[in-house]
Amino acid sequence: MVEVNMQLLDRIDDLKLGERVLQWKKAVKEAGWKLFAEREKWTVQSWRETEGLDIQLRRALLFKKVVENVEIRIQDYDRIAGRLTPAVIGCMTSIDVCGDYIPGIWQDSDKLRITMDADVGMDPESIEILRAGARLFRGKTAPEMTYKAWEAADGGWIRDAEAAKLKDPTLDTGIFGQVTSVLMWKKILEKGLKGFIREAREHIDAFVANRESDIDRLYFWKSSIIACEAVIDHARRYAAAAREMAEKETWPERRAELLEMAAACGHVPENPARTFHEALQSMAIVGVCKNYEHPMHNNPQWGRGDQYLYPYFIRDIDEGTITLEKASDLLAELIGRWGTQTFVSSESSMESHQINFGINNAMIGGVNAAGEDGSNELSYLFLHVVGLLQLSSPTLGLRWNGKTPSWIMNKAIRTNMATKGGIPLFENDEVVIEHFLKDGIPIEEAAEWCGLGCVYPCLPSRAEHYGAEGIAACNLAAMLHLVLHNGADVNDKQTGLQTGDPREFKSFEDLYGALMRQHRFITHRIFWLASIARREQPKHMRLPFLSTVGVPSCMELGQDLLIPDPESCMFGISDRAIIDVADSLMALKKLVFDEKKLTMGELLEAIDGNFEGREGERIRRLCLAQPKFGNDIDEVDLLAKRIGEDSERIIRSYDNSPFRNYMIAREGLAWHYFGGLGVGALPNGRKAFEPLNDGSISPMRGVDRAGPTAVLRSALKAGFRESHASVLNQKFSASILGSRESIDKLAAYTNAFMANGGSHIQYNMVDTNELRDAKIHPENHRDLIVRIGGFSAYFTQLSADIQDDVINRSEHNL
Amino acid sequence: MTGAGKKAAPPRAVITNIQGFSIHDGPGIRTVVFFKGCPLACRWCANPECLSPEPQIGFIETLCTDCGECSQICAEGAIRGGKGVHRIDYSRCTSCGDCVDGCGYGALVRYGESMTVPDVWDIVRRDKMFYDSSGGGVTVSGGEPLLRAGFVRELFELCRQERIDTCIETCGLAARDALVEVIPVTDHFLFDLKLIDPKLHKTYTGQSSGIILENAAFLMERGVDIVFRQPLVPAITDTVENMEATAAFLKGSGKKDVSLELMPYHRMGRGKYRALDMRYLMDGTEAAGNERAEAVKKAYIDLGVRCTISR
Fold first, then answer.
1. Which of the four pLDDT bands, split at 50, 70 and 90, describes residue A136?
2. Any chain A CB within 8 A of the CB of B268?
3. What b/e sequence results for A256-272 when a residue is b if at least 16 CB atoms lie within 10 Å of its CB, and e otherwise?
4. Which of A43, A238, A589, B236 could share a disulfide with A96, CB 3.0–4.6 Å?
5. How far is residue A412's CA from residue A404's CA, in Å, rounded to a whole number?
6. B166 CA: distance to closest CA in chain A (Å)
7. Cα A505 vs. chain centroid, distance in angstroms?
8. Which residues make up the CATH 3.20.20.70 domain(s) of chain B?
9. Does domain B56-111 have CATH number 3.30.1050.10?
10. Does the interface predicted TM-score (ipTM) exceed 0.85?
11. Which of chain B's residues have a Cβ under 8 Å away from the Cβ of A748?
12. Is B129 close to A748, i.e. CB distance below 8 A?
């Protein structure tokens, strides 16, 4: 157990944001978003120069070309160097990775849509660079080549399945190539990149000495050296730039800062970090270079940052070599910068993810391999700084366990209120670790788990393939739609298995069995296609830098992480919309089979008519009146449990050899909106194409009338113990949760849920009136953060229907 | 109900609501059981549905779509039609609730359901994990729970067996026997002191303060854990006279550390008056704001009373 300095915690509570951070915040508010085509200029140039080389070396040289040439900038308020673009908020494209994925570049417009709600201005020269990139790379990138492979194997089925939202994501969301989790920060900080270079050299020497023949391994180690040296060079460019600025700087305080920056960039990330400041500087450079390699690679930057950085932090504080104020500001600077890093989304990504900034997870607290909780003063500072910054990113999570101290729980709840919602989320350490252990992962690795995007638990020591092969989720509600239409999807394509005319089903079990057959048919087919993607993608794409600093096995094997290694790869899937299906099946069971208030034909007719008309509305009201999950009603809660367990059996029964089986992780993002587009009206009373339930174990909107504790009891009853993540969102009004006493009560509430096996919970604390006003007057509420299904976003940036969705969720008045 | 030779029927009570995760009515996370029926009729009451001891049907106009379904269902012909007219003719309504079940829009609501102790127990026991983690428990409120002291006693005995904390929120107007009956099974009392002056008390609540003050003194004498609560109703309870009288009463008890919790008046109950076709008499009174609450709190502290504000 960490000996915590309570006085230090009190001092942290009093900290405010320093001058530099405030300057940065002001700049962020004032600055428009900018798109930089420059990266693509260098990718095109490099790709042309390296034709004829092995792909591993080509990608390493492309990376080198970009990081050695891309324009760098130190802003007036920067104390840590390393920004993705010269702008305050700037983004880059990933055409060399995803192909011709931005339709806007072919339109004659001086504006380009880059995310949900943001257009950027484009000059003709930049547009021309992007078009040149698209002409060069289109049709040849890994996602595009994978679609060709899929079509060769299985015709157009996958396109139909995607159109019917039976699965997500499509490959162009950039989740492709996201095979990894958190970088090996501990090793990077302790050994420096030169340690990685040394290892690669030793491997090459051994390769030659032993007269080995697998030349791909040699190419990998060479690509590692090229990449690491390029990153060191990138840092040195910052060192030179900072020195140059210092020479011209007349203000002594700023000059000292710049000289300090120059010294740090001359030392890290090449060498081991010696101080907290250098450790953050090292992470900043490595983090930004990771994004140059793949700008849509929006993986968690921090991981267990409070653990990796703690030795540096506490030593500097104890020895007095850094003030607490400075340490806090430096941390805030990097959290802020990474939290406002963005990229150009694809159309499907905008639709399915509803995000503007790269997902950027930090997971604090949690046990180590010996079972001791690691919450420390730096964990506390993370919470405090995030509370001060008021950003939607990072997604900050607290690993709750039976030993989580009350001082960190208390601070976590206070941070929740300071950010007006969602941050931090709580995940059950014990549940997650137990899952990994059950799957044969050693405790030393399992204890290091972090959040991937939002709540998906990943291991920094393994290559995480979740989403990487074009499948992150399957949509059980869309499968139910198939069953209710004998295999036809919302677009009237025969995407599903013909499970028979539902009017002929003799019993509820007939219906249930048909749904499970449909599930198997869809998921196993998608798994098969994913296995094809797994083989096809590495032919066209490599990530030498990420491989080197991301996953330990790559260096050992001499193998890029896009080439999957059965020993160290993890696979996962989120089987979504279980609650929608449970409520729907419950209504079908009651109305059609048990009480016979409706015939299947009548119900189907109402559904196909989207409950329109007087009779449709009457039937919808009947549907809505049936028992709903979230009210502590056994029969529906246990039906959800049954569906969850059967879904797991179907998924686990897929033979993924020689790789591990798929693990289940019911996370959500803002997927419920996207997923709903593939589902017609449902017997739970939901109308066609409306959003599904958010999260994965949250009740249907507005039906949880028995209060928040009943929701938790339902969630515990359904259990989802077969999944190593689930998402439960609850909303409380902040105006009521005002007193110190209620903070303790919410902490106790969380403790009770977790101690009884709850796996995840997060709280929105927002007044409905405030939300309504924010919808009408977004300009007054730009700081409003709302969390939906596992991540947070600025409320004003959500699409109108998601806004309504948040507003309509029954507010739990305490 | 009781026939000769037969065992007495189990006690029943009309309950309007059982509200989980309540954090303002006693220590920790609590479940509050609202009893229907109250001997007072305070002008500012936020729970008008708890005044009458009988089940009632309410009508929420904003949710009504004028579909007419309810008028077809009602066997008594107690549903009226027409826009802007309260749907229910209470002279005919028997509170059977058929219309509530038939309304698909939630525009008709049932206030009050006759329940047995096991019925209530089955609900309140479910949140035990939250009581345990927060030091919370069950609070009975209303309405006036002491009108059903036998019911409360049985319920609290079950709570005690399961080590669930118990709390009574009372207006104070109750038979002494009722108090005596519940004291052994009650961990905390939340006791309303509205107006000390008997005449004013009668004016605003319909009853004098006499018995209430006697009961308060009795409970303090018995040494129970008690917190007094005073609705902060602008110009009615926050007058200098009432504050001084309240302070004098509390200090006169000789009990140390007696504390007073101010309950700022709010208008959130208004909709329920409309739903029940009752007149709301407080339209001229604004909700008590934070500033006023702080000022009153300070005045009480100056008078030597430990005082907090409920939020």
1. very high
2. no
3. ebbbbbbbbbbbbbbbb
4. A43
5. 11
6. 17
7. 41
8. 12-53+117-309
9. no
10. yes
11. 28-29, 130, 133-136
12. no
Alpha helix (H) residue ranges in A473-565: 476-484, 508-536, 544-550, 552-557
Distance from the first to the final alpha carbon of chain A: 35
Interface contact B130-A739, CB threshold 8 A: no
Which residues have C-beta within 8 Å of that of residue A750, sequence separation ≥ 6? A400, A409, A413, A426, A761
The chain A residue lying nearest B134, using CA atoms, is A748
What topology is assigned to B12-53+117-309 in CATH? TIM Barrel (3.20.20)
Q: Which helix (H) or strand (E) holds B281?
A: none
Q: What is the pLDDT of residue B6?
A: 59
Mutate to test the interface with A, among B130, B131, B132 (most CBs of A within 10 A): B130
B105 touches A: beta carbon within 8 Å: yes
CATH 3.30.70.20 domain range(s) in chain B: 56-111
Residue A112: phi and psi, rounded to 5, are: -135, 130
Q: For A178-202, b where at least 16 C-beta lie within 10 A, e where not — what string?
A: bbbbbbbbbebbebbbebbbebbee
**Contact yes or no for A709 and B132 at CB 8 A:** no
Does residue A798 surpass a pLDDT of 70? no
Tell me the sheet residues that pair with B14. Answer: B114
Reduced to 3 states (helix: H, G, I; strand: E, B; else coil), residue A402 is coil
User: From start to end of A640-770, where are the E strands?
Assistant: 662-664, 729-732, 760-765
Which residue is associated with the tokens 């007095």? A320
Q: Do A749 and B311 touch (CB under 8 A)?
A: no
Average pLDDT (A343-351) is: 72
Query: A158-181+452-727 adopts what CATH topology?
Result: Anaerobic Ribonucleotide-triphosphate Reductase Large Chain (3.20.70)
Task: Give the gap in angstroms from C-alpha A428 to the nearest C-alpha of chain B.
Answer: 16
Q: What region, left, alpha or beta, does residue B265 occupy, with left being phi > 0 and alpha being psi -120 to 50 degrees?
A: beta
Q: Return the beta strands (E) in A372-417 as ranges.
A: 395-400
CB contact (8 A) between residue A710 and residue B22: no
Helices (H), A656-762: 671-676, 708-718, 740-755
Question: Looking at CA atoms only, how far is residue B147 from chain A in angstroms?
Answer: 26
A707 to B21: CB separation less than 8 angstroms, yes or no: yes
Q: How much is the average pLDDT of A483-488?
A: 98
